[in-house]
Each structure stands twice: as C-alpha cells, then as structure tokens.
Design brief:
By secondary structure, this protein is an alpha+beta fold. The chain has helices at 12-18, 30-38, 41-62, and strands at residues 2-11, 74-77, 83-86, 90-99, 102-111. Residues 4-107 form the 4'-phosphopantetheinyl transferase domain.
Length: 112
C-alpha cells in the first residue's frame, strides 16, 4: 500500500557551501560517510546534493507514518548503481537526478 510520495530539489552550490562546515556531514549515515570519503573531491558536492535531496524526499514521503532525522535515512547504491533507500520498517523507492546546478529526488514510500 502506498504510504506517500515526496520530492525535493537542491542547489548544488548551496550544498557545496554547507560542506565547509564539518557538522553538515552529520546528515550522512556511517556507511554513507565511508562512500563520501571515497568520492573524488570535485564530485562530492554533486553527490551529497543528490543524497540530501533524496533524504528530504523520503522524509516527506513517510511523514504521516513517523518522524525521522536525516541520518536515519540511508541512501546507498544497489549492484547496478541505482539509489536504494534503507529506513527502518518501510520500503521506499527513490530516484535521484542531477542537471547543471541542481539535484532533484523523488521518493515513494510503501507500507510493508
């Protein structure tokens, strides 16, 4: 059963500025942080903007069920490289796209 849908768009330059503060990276889970550290520096803002948009989209999609902090929403990649969401007790499909200075994400949450 569909629980909700969410969408978020982020300016990549805004995330780049936020990255200057180490505390901003607290939005990442431990596993996401390990991935982030392996990404070439010139791609980090784009990658993080996509993950941030996806986390925001997921939170919007599940807000009727429960309130989550960004770090509790984990966005990893499956074997094919597609984003996959891990969040306790829910199945959420996500899609991330980048275009020039923006990252956008959609999420559809299902009740298991």
């Amino acid at each position: 059963m569909l629980l909700g849908v969410g969408c978020d768009i982020v300016e990549i330059v805004r995330i780049k500025r936020a990255m200057e503060k180490e505390s901003f990276l607290r939005v990442l889970s431990e596993q996401e942080r390990k991935l982030f550290d392996r990404i070439p520096k010139e791609r980090r803002a784009e990658w993080l903007a996509g993950r941030f948009a996806a986390k925001e989209a997921v939170i919007k999609a599940v807000h009727k069920e429960k309130s989550y902090v960004l770090s509790a929403v984990e966005i990893l990649a499956d074997a094919a490289g597609a984003p996959t969401c891990y969040i306790a007790g829910l199945q959420v499909e996500v899609s991330i796209s980048h275009e020039k200075e923006y990252a956008i994400a959609y999420a559809a949450a299902m009740k298991e």
